[in-house]
Fold this protein.
Amino acid sequence: MNNTSADVPLLFTPIKLRSVTARNRIVSSPMCQYLSDDGAPEDWQLVNFGRFAMGGCGIVFGEETAVEARGRKTHHCAGIYKDSHIAAYRRITDFIRSQGAVPAIQLGHCGRRASQHGPLKDRAALTEAERPWQGISPSPLPPTPDGVIPREMDISDIRATIVAWREATQRSVDAGYDICEIHGAHGYLIHQFLSPLSNLRTDAYGGDLEGRMRYALEVVEAVREVWPQDKPLFFRTSAVEGPGGVWGIEETLVLVRELKQRGVDMVDCSSGGIALGGEGGLSAVPRVPGFQAGYAREIRRETGMPTVVVGMISDARHAEMILREGHADLVALARGLMDDPNWPLHAARELGCADPLALVHAREAQRLRQLEQHSKAYPPGSAVEIPFGVEEQVAYSWAKGIAERR
């Protein structure tokens, strides 16, 4: 998958995933926007995700998208639980594809993390006046010590949510997505089943690792049945839990081997989501450049599963090194793209791509080529005079960046 000429940056080498080909290995990672209307995306999503496609990303994810209404964290979280949502998402996927990128969706269910405000209000629980709803989870344990206790799921709940995953997947197909990712990380419902800290069940969906993985694997099977066989399926995992957690890389490797057998094509390597604090468990993962790259490498090396690396990767040469050394197959950025939506274009220039402007639309490329031509015509320090009149030329100062009449 990573074979390419040594003089071509691997970051900008196309990659084929089943029948889908991405123009490069740069992924816009899913980022919740908290600006949907009863699940449906609006102009914000079109512009926000569209700009990442315009900036040159190979794959553009939207945001974590709930498979049912109660699977949203807030009233304003994205969802694809109604047929009426399809056209709104199709508008976005059509635009992303028109800019040369692959549209991708991440499907999720928040489980016990339901009924709260977004991060601008510190994820505070909704008051009675704010129309709260009860979250569901494998066990009646709150997500935080002072959090709302969810309802313990019975078998009918488990079956109903799996049906919701299947139906949301079909809507994602109809909405024009080419990649689907199942969100199994960050303390969401699937992760709640996986972790022994949040899953205290004694039936077939709890207990040992095999039981705790059952729900995740049944979701994957349901999604893979509906998701087209010629399109790739991703799975996002928390390779390790947060501070005080117990789920680690060894458990993740067991899970990934099972995912691979069920048709998952790529594992998106993240971390955190279930944390208790205190002593005796996992420590916090330092937010340093590539802090999750080691997880991607270990999963890829031990299971043969292709991986996505994400986390504080902002330097193009660092991203290229991760790919060249075989630690991952795709590099994802989230906040980095918010800071610089044209990061792919700038990275292509830094890595010496023959024609970086091929990443952007021809209308933009034409103007940017003119900008480059002007820069080449007048290299810094050259003698330049700016006309102020028919017979008046004023010397330009490169140091000051201005022509001043004396």
